[in-house]
Design goal:
Layout (H helix, E strand, L loop, with lengths): L1 H12 L21 H10 L38 H9 L12 H21 L14 E5 L7 H6 L3 E6 L2 H11 L9 E4 L2 H6 L4 E7 L8 H11 E12 L3 H14 L16 H10 L2 E12 L4 E5 L5 E8 L1
Parallel strand pairs: 1-2, 1-4, 2-3, 4-5
Antiparallel strand pairs: 5-8, 6-7, 6-8
Bound molecules: S-adenosylmethionine.
Amino acid sequence: MASKLLRNTIHRMLGLVPKNPNPNFPPKRLIAPTCEALSARLYSDVARPVSIDPSLPEKPPIDNGTTVDRKNLNKGSTSSLNEAELAKFAAIAETWWDAEGPFKPLHVMNPTRLTFIRSTLCRHFRKNPYCARPLEGLKIVDVGCGGGILSEPLARMGATVTGVDAVEKNIKIARLHADLDPLTSAIEYRCTTAEKLVEEHKEFDAVIALEVIEHVADPAEFCKSLAALTVSDGATVISTINRSMRSYATAIIAAEYLLHWLPKGTHQWSSFLTPEELVLILQRASITAQEMAGFVYNPLTGRWSLSDDISVNFIAFGTKN
Ligand SMILES: C[S@@+](CC[C@H](N)C(=O)[O-])C[C@H]1O[C@@H](n2cnc3c(N)ncnc32)[C@H](O)[C@@H]1O
């Protein structure tokens, strides 16, 4: 009996609950969407609901200048926005450059992410990865740039960088920080969305969105916007977290609840994509995934490294068809 209860609880946590004969139990808000529902959502291009928890306010009180200004945007320009997710980032925007703060995992992962980006972009664009400014001549957009943790080293590597984020506070912090160094002060930061840049007919040699897709309202639409921003035969790089048992244990239970690396509730397990799902939605957006790598953490050294293990954190490099 106890083991059945435990098994049912785990299944519910993972969204693997079969149809319940009693439609009122358990309450709907306790159940994550089933894998079947998630696949249906991904493969049918239907927009994701803003939140799976109806007890959350329909519109969190953040539309007061903290996020992208909707008045100047068409409906299509905001289709990737998930208000509840943006509210989480607006709340901790001041901490972007605190290397020991909530964004510590991104700071620590950054050198490893940059290794992947430098090697894939240099190979694709036939550039020398060993020179001082290997990305010289490339126009890159960093979508969901946050405080600019990635935009800045891309600029130092010689790229012409545009950083965009839907949270106004993030863009302000990014601007202030980039202005501290002449090598990064040329970065163009804008509070906007990828969809809005598409409307403006912007195009880039490389479009990068790291740790963003799990926070957007509709991953398939988001990838279509990323593809539309990429020049023909240009590059797209996306990193995210796999929807696996291991990611539930490490990226949520360990990182948020045991080690307190991230604020509780930073990630919704059901919003993660498997590598197969990401490859599929990229393919449907005319981007062919060419290379993928996992990030693994070594608790002894406190460092991340690239690996074939894509069971938790992974990064994909694709080219526009
Ligand atoms: C986990 S942070 C990643 C920041 C940065 N890419 C990095 O890896 O260092 C996710 C960022 O995406 C932004 N974001 C979420 N949805 C967005 C959207 N639809 N359009 C633009 N930015 C978005 C958030 O405001 C936040 O700054």
